[in-house]
Amino acid sequence: MKKAGDPEGYSVNQLLGLGQQSARKSYYPELTARMAELEAERNRYKWLFENALHGIFQASLGGRLLAANPALAAMLGDADVAATLARCTSLEALFADAEGLDEVSRLLHRQGHLQGHTTWLAGCDGKRVPVALTLLRKPDRGGEILVEGFVADITERERARQELLALNARLEARVRERTQRLEQLNDDLAGEVAERRLIEEQLRAARDLAQEANRSKDRYLAAASHDLLQPLNAARLLVSTLRERALDDDASRLVDSIHLSLEGAEELLTDLLDIARLDQERIQPQRECFPLSQMLCGLVAEYAPRAQRKALRFRCVESSLYVDSDHRLLGRVLRNLLSNACRYTDAGSVLLGVRRRGDVVSIEVHDSGPGIPPDQLRAIFEEYHQLNAERARNRQGVGLGLAIVERICQRLGLAVSVSSTLGRGSSFAVQVPICRPAPALAASPAFAQPDSPLTGRRMLVVDNDSRILMGMQALLEQWGMRCDTAHDFDEVLEQRLAAPDVLLVDLHLDAGETGDRLVEKLRRHWQRPQLPAVVITADRSEAWRRTLAECGIPLLHKPLRPGKLRAVLSQLIARQDRDE
After folding, report:
1. How many CB atoms sit inside 10 A of residue 280's CB?
2. Which positions fall inside the Histidine kinase domain (predicted)?
3. Contact 414, 432 (CB under 8 A)
4. Tens digit of pLDDT for each residue in 230-261?
5. Report field, pTM of the whole predicted structure over 0.85
6. CA distance 192 to 206
7. Using alpha carbons only, what angle is made at residue 20 by residues 18 and 25, rounded to the nearest 5 degrees?
């Protein structure tokens, strides 16, 4: 006999009346339990259906809405499920537009289900509700297709999407606006660039014109300075010769007046040329380590006689230090300071002093002149500034000496200072770095005396200007030297002159001959490669200075200062005597 627990037990139809009466009775308790389980399961699914957070509905795909849960009704804005079922009498009424239902039907027929499909459902009062729809196709029932749908409200997501779209639209609008502004700025910038290029072309053209004007001015200054300084140099030499001769008082006063006038003209021309070259940055420092005594010796020889002529005491502090600077430019600074000291001091003394201050040496010029007012200590370094020069008879020079001092010190990186007391004098100081000489230079020459003996020495002077030759011969013979003169190398050969002790040669001679080449010719002619030589010129270019420095030939500028010439000649002859 079959039992309810057997795999091949009775069917439900047999249990409900189709089997034997006794068999049915034996299965009533188990059937009751099974029915209770089914009821509990149905209640559980009903509770889940009614309390689900997402909307759930059941519908016929081509017909009406069969069931809906409260979540769907709330989502669509209906008062309850009955209102939703009453409003949506067909599935078409559930969708906001027919196109949405057509698309769902097409996809469902093709795929058999939908998952997360976004569409719009029709809410109450005509509102549209964005949803994510999941549909499951149920087995056909009597030719009718049933579907069960699960609906998620994506209103917030849709709102965020719409806001994002709006934000993107605003951003795109701003990008377009910025792009238009940038394009406009680019157009404006292109116009400015074109205008700037035009201005630059005009500036280049103006610069070229200015440079050509400067070159023309330089050529003019070079030619004019040479033509002016040549006769001035001859006059200075002749006057210097007269000043060293015994003259009566009236003649001596006239000669001194002529000397002062020529000296003023020389300083004026020299200052004008130097300030122009400094402004054009044509003066380039050439630093070297040299003994300070070498420079002090030349300064003493040049300015001690000048101070003595004004009855001033001239003193110099000797030094064995070596300094790192440009010998020529530093000498120009100290000459300007000494020149001012001698010029403005009427009684008392002038001191050229040296003080070591750590790694620098302070080279100082003290005078006992009238002094400088405190409010003028800065102004004296300005161009064309002179103290107490309201009246013409008080003016001395053009007031460029200290301006040149300051600019040269700036070029050399040196500090220059001044202190003064009215009625007691002034003191100028230049701070120069100290250096250690190479072993070959360590033996510094003794401090030269201002009056080196030149008596009996033979000098050859070569210049294409007869006035210079006459003045130079008179001056040198006044110093006790034997002086031969010539205009060029051929004239030296014609005179069959013996080798001199020293050569004094002009830089620019006739037929394109230059002093450095002439010195080399004369040294070969007499077979004396170390024959001392000095080149003189009115040309103050840096190129020639470097060329002669490389040749080891001293360079003196016209108009020659007799004191400086005498110091240089004394040093050259003394050096030659030591070498021999």
Report:
1. 11
2. 223-436
3. yes
4. 677 777 777 777 777 777 777 777 777 777 66
5. no
6. 20
7. 100
Check if the beta carbon of residue 70 is closer than 8 Å to that of residue 84.
no
Helix (H, G, I), strand (E, B) or coil at 65: strand
DSSP 15: I
Per-residue confidence (pLDDT) for residue 444, from 0 to 100? 42
E strand or H helix that includes residue 268? helix 249-279
Tokens 């000296």 belong to 263
Facing residues of 65 across strands?
59
Which residue, among 221, 207, 223, has the nearest Cα to 282 in the 3D structure? Answer: 221
Residues (pLDDT < 70) of the chain are 1-27, 62, 139-143, 215, 217-230, 260-261, 263-283, 383-399, 438-453, 580
- What phi and psi, each to the nearest 5 degrees, are found at residue 541? -70, 150
Q: Are 542 and 218 in contact (CB under 8 A)?
A: no
Task: Please state the separation of Cα 409 from the chain's center in Å.
Answer: 23
Cα–Cα dist 333/339, whole Å = 10
Q: How far apart are the C-alpha atoms of 47 and 88, rounded to whole Å?
A: 23
Nearest to 131 by CA among 70, 44, 56: 56
**Do 75 and 153 contact (CB within 8 A), yes or no?**
yes
Q: How far apart are CA 344 and CA 423, in angstroms?
A: 12
Reference 269, options 231, 225, 226; nearest CA is: 225
With b for 16 or more beta-carbon neighbours within 10 A and e for fewer, the 304-332 pattern comes to: bbbbeeeebebebeebebbbebbbbbbbb
Residue 333 CB burial class (10 angstroms; 0-12, 13-18, ≥19) = buried
Are 428 and 367 within 8 A, CB to CB? no
